[in-house]
Write a structure and sequence with these properties.
eleven-stranded mixed sheet, five-stranded mixed sheet, 29 strands, 48% strand, elongated
């Protein structure tokens, strides 16, 4: 049994948001026609993901800053008593800065009641990092798979392995990468590998940083960093229900390099709904995801193999609350529960009794909030909890019990009922020791070996009995972050 607990506490007093926040930033400068900054310009910011409008004022130099904005499409309205109203539309991107500089004309010069509307650029000029942001529309249109780890396939220049779920990037090894889901580090401690779950069914955006990745929050800067933000509710009720199936008769019969054969069926059920609990104040979003995997008609050298069955139930809930225009809270919880049976007998020479089953759970909890204390200072906190529990056990349990002194009485006539037994293979050569060894193991091969597909005679080298071990690994991580963000 292996249990590990990891925790971290960060107190940050700098002019940058705390690491791994699930937000973006809008910054810019408002100037007049002479290029001088205009102080006191009121900026009203609205979006469907923002329960209440956010407001800011430009400084004496005409500069303004709006951090901790949930990713989404925004409209900014610039008003001043002596200036014509201006509007801008902008996309706020996860972990990036959107720069919007505005030039305002005096009310006398501008025509009455005319609003100038423009689209802001997504170029982030505040950082030299190599960043990429991808929204759910792109993710849904690409055949990348359903799990969060499949999003790694979207990162240019990164080697991807379905088995180890990591790959080198920017000259670093796979252990240099950092994988975050909703801002929570989901790397397995000490290994640098990514948990196979959760799903990407309700991911709204992902953010990828390669060259120049920040070394904040235990990130090794040589690799890549990937983060995501889940969908949120809005003032409009929305929902979807999706069922996908790939039956075995639509897929060619699978044969692995070990000549084991099987037919595989996949199905995915996805459902979500979101909307207002209190309009302009409190939003909710909930989702359900259920993938199932079945491998049937399996066989190998020992004959038919039991059907492999894997089922996972994943639930997610999120609340977005804005009690005032200057305060915003997000709280979410995700839990995934997967069970499987008859795993690990895909090899050509492993008896069905040696299969294993197990279960795994994944829980991610988040509570974060931001407060615009003044137009130029912000307080932000975040608490995250990550728990990944896995358990693997033999499908066939042995009835043999060891004595208190550690000895075990084995019945050589029933070795396939007393744990995992590797059937020996004959030794080549004609010397007396080799002949004696081959004569000794011949009855074992006859009893426990498999039929050679070429000659039909019993052959050694296979495995019979039950799987060899119980394997429990539990990982926990909690993080606390507090940041005061101010511009002087």
């Amino acid at each position: 049994m292996n249990k590990r607990y990891w925790g971290s506490l960060a107190l940050v007093l700098v002019a940058l948001p705390a690491a791994a926040q699930q937000t973006g930033t809008i910054t810019g400068k408002v100037t007049g026609k002479n290029g001088q900054g205009i102080a006191g310009v009121r900026i009203d910011v609205t979006a469907n993901v923002l329960p209440q409008p956010r407001r800011a004022l430009t400084s004496e130099t005409g500069e303004y800053r709006l951090p901790f904005l949930p990713p989404g499409e925004y409209v900014l309205t610039y008003t001043h008593a002596d200036m014509a109203t201006e509007k801008r539309s902008a996309s706020v991107v996860l972990q990036q800065n959107t720069a919007i500089n505005v030039s305002m004309a005096t009310a006398k010069v501008a025509s009455a009641n005319v609003e100038v509307v423009a689209q802001a650029t997504l170029m982030d000029t505040s950082s030299a990092e190599l960043k990429t942001s991808i929204n759910f529309e792109v993710i849904n249109s690409l055949p990348v798979g359903h799990d969060y780890r499949d999003l790694i396939k979207l990162i240019p220049g990164v080697q991807y392995s379905q088995d180890t779920t990591r790959g080198p990037s920017a000259g670093g090894s796979g252990q240099d990468n950092v994988h975050q889901f909703d801002g929570v580090n989901v790397n397995l401690p000490l290994f640098g590998t990514l948990s196979a779950e959760p799903s990407n069914a309700d991911v709204d955006q992902i953010a990828i940083v390669q060259g120049g990745a920040s070394a904040t929050d235990f990130n090794r800067s040589a690799g890549f960093s990937i983060n995501s933000v889940s969908k949120s509710g809005t003032n409009t009720f929305k929902g979807e229900l999706l069922y996908q199936i790939m039956p075995a008769n639509l897929v060619a019969k699978r044969r692995t390099i070990s000549t084991a054969e099987f037919e595989q069926s996949l199905s995915y059920t996805t459902a979500n709904v979101g909307g207002p609990i209190v309009k302009e104040n409190l939003f909710f979003f909930i989702s359900y995801y259920r993938p199932t995997l079945t491998q049937e008609h399996r066989s190998n050298f020992y004959g038919p193999v039991p059907e492999l069955d894997s089922t996972r139930d994943e639930f997610f809930g999120k609340l977005t609350f804005a009690p005032t225009p200057t305060i915003l809270f997000n709280a979410s919880y995700r839990t995934s529960d997967r069970e499987y049976q008859h795993y690990g007998v895909g090899g050509p020479a492993t008896a069905a009794s040696a299969s294993s089953g197990g279960k795994s759970t994944l829980d991610i909890g988040i509570l974060e909030g931001s407060w615009a204390v003044t137009p130029s200072s912000f307080l932000n906190f975040k608490y995250t909890s990550f728990a990944n529990k896995t358990q693997e056990r033999p499908d066939t349990l042995s009835g043999v019990k060891p004595a208190l002194d550690g000895s075990v009485n084995l019945n050589v006539n029933a070795l396939d009922t007393q744990g995992l037994f590797g059937v020996p293979s004959p030794r080549l050569g004609g010397t007396p020791p080799e002949l004696a060894y081959n004569a000794f193991i011949a009855p074992l091969i006859t009893t426990y070996g498999y039929s050679d597909p070429t000659t039909g005679l019993p052959k050694g080298g296979g495995n019979v009995g039950g799987a060899s071990q119980f394997n429990t690994q539990d990982f926990f991580r909690r993080s606390y972050q507090l940041a005061y963000d101010a511009v002087f």
